[in-house]
C-alpha cells in the first residue's frame, strides 16, 4: 500500500472513529450502539477501511473482535488523529465564543483529597468563567482516556514502574503511607505499637497487583512477618474509611487522607519504602489548551504548598 491510497479521498474521519469505537467496545454491536448507527453500517465501514489499507485490522470471533498487529499500529495513529481533531474543535470554539474553555481532569484517590481541590479553588478564583470537569476512575481506565484525548490530564499517584512513553508524568510531592486505626481501637492505646502486634487483627488492604500492595508486602517481609491472613481487599475509599472507623479494622492510608479524618489515628509505625508520589500526567504529543495550561499552573502551585507543609510537619 502506498501513502497515496490514504490521501485519495476515500479515507474518511468516520473510518477512524469506527475503528477506535470497535477497539474500545470489543464488539461490532456495542460499537454501533455507542455511535448510534446500525450494526451493518459499522461492518461496512470497517470493510471499507481494511480495503483502503489493504490489511486486516480485526479478527472476528464468537465473543467479539480483537485487533491484529496491523490494527494495533493503525489504532495508535487513529487515536492521535481523533484527539487532535477534538483539540482543534475546542480551540476554534474558544476563539469564536470568546470564552476561556473547559479543562477535563481525570483523578484517582491520590489526587482527590488535597491537591485537586486546592488547585480547582485557585484556578476558579483566577478564571471564574472557565469550566472544570472531573472524572474519577481507575488508573488503567484513565490511561486509556489520556491516550484518546477525552481528558486533558490525570491527577494521581505517580509510580516508578515502567509506563507508556507517550504519557508525560510530573511529580509534585511525596507523602508517607501510614498505618491507621479508629481512635477507640486497642492499638491506639499501645505505648509502642508494632506491625507484629497488629498482624492478628482484621486488616483492610489494597488489592493485589497494585504498587501499594507490593510495597506493603515487602514491608511485612522486612519485619519478618507474613502479610495478615485476616484481611479484605478494597478500592473504595468510603468503604475503607468506614470499616476502619466503625468496625475495628486496621488499614493504611496516605498521610494527608488520614490527617483529615478526625475519627482515625495514625500509629507511630514506620513503613520503610511505602510512600506515594503525587502529580499529574498528560499526553506528550498533544499541546495543552490554554485553559489546561492554566490549570496545570494551579496544580503546580498547590503541589508546592502541600510539599512545603509536609516538610514542615514531617
TrEMBL record:
Keyword match Endoplasmic reticulum: no
MF annotations from Gene Ontology: DNA binding; DNA-binding transcription factor activity
Record's keyword annotation contains DNA-binding: yes
Coiled-coil annotated spans: none
Cross-referenced Pfam families: HTH_1, LysR_substrate
GO cellular component: cytosol
InterPro entries referenced in this protein's UniProt entry, alphabetically: HTH-type_LysR_regulators, LysR_HTH_N, LysR_subst-bd, WH-like_DNA-bd_sf, WH_DNA-bd_sf
Residues of the HTH lysR-type domain: 11-68
UniProt keywords, alphabetically: DNA-binding, Transcription, Transcription regulation
Similarity field: Belongs to the LysR transcriptional regulatory family.
Protein known as: Unannotated protein
